[in-house]
Amino acid sequence: MIPYGRQSISEQDIAAVENVLRSDFLTQGPAVPHFEQRVAAYCGASHALAVNSATSALHMACLAAGLGPGDWLWTSPITFVASSNCGLYCGASVDFVDIDPHTLNLSPTALAEKLEKAASEGRLPKVVIPVHFSGEPCDMEAIAALSQQYGFTIIEDASHAIGGRYGQKSIGACEHSHMTVFSFHPVKIVTSGEGGMVLTNSDALAAKLALLRSHGITRDDGLMIEADPAPWHYEQLDLGFNYRMTDIQAALGNSQMDRLDDFIAARHRLADRYDALLRDTPVITPVRNPAHLSGAHLYVIQLGAEVRKDRRAVFEAMRKAGVGVNVHYIPVHTQPYYQKLGFMPGMFPTSEAYYARAITLPLYPGLTNEQQDKVVSTLKQAIS
Ligand SMILES: *Cc1c(COP(=O)(O)O)cnc(C)c1O
After folding, report:
1. pTM over 0.90
2. Strand 358-361 to strand 299-303: parallel, antiparallel, or no bridges (unpaired)?
């Protein structure tokens, strides 16, 4: 089976992990800050905090933003459930903003309309999470202008977008947001096995995140209440978690950063090739705005109106032929858990219409031209 995504592990990656295994520290050693400094420097952000997953990163970012019971978090329905579950972890309520049918990202127009209505009803969101779906950057300037007007915190879910750019700035620079989250799960662009990171330019948010990541405990004299702390003294100042990344994971992530630009170039080369191979077929290929640089994490096609086969039949025929297609994503508001919260199919029609026709084709740096040709010929056969 050709998978839809796959990690690329080099001998250098293996040596980096081995070095940690032979060193004094498997966790809380030097590899984590090295990885953090590397990603912060690459992105041009002041702070980067590594954690054990993007899910933990989103949870911490929401808490650092002050999200709690009585507050609202808004995000896109076309995302992984973690982008909205993080609001529920904080005891907040969650709502969604429908997507733009071309970019497949949260629509700034729909966001503006929903904010105007929410303002009149006194239920404005405290946090909005734009998701750079498939790596394609959201319209951050428009979202930032609305944040200025309505006062919400922006947390970019950039799980698909490390290595991408918004205009001239790297995704993660937080030029138009308060925090940005990356995922290092093996199907993502850079992997640490499991892992995530929060980037921010705010010293205050970084300090809160550092506490939340490790039980709310500090050993920093400057932060402690005790005026003359004994050498063994530490203080728990907040209710935090153990969301730490290990040095084993950080060494892998740091080593992978050496090839990030190559990974992005390989993904774009393959995406260009898909675009060319699919030009005269009745499928809609994904948008990549040349003003930005997509992370090109996913290559998502939509079956055009002329395709007579339904999506499930095409999907099953491709899987049967050994092509590991996938679907990103089932709209979050239609999940049973979210329906129990009062959401219903029909509430976000653009997301649902997209979902009904979407198929994710395999895309990862190690995908060969021959494998890609097989994906395309299998698709053509399946839709004919
Ligand atoms: C993968 C992913 C997450 C969760 O990442 P983990 O590191 O697996 O916790 C969150 N949001 C999006 C959009 C993702 O793709």
Report:
1. yes
2. antiparallel
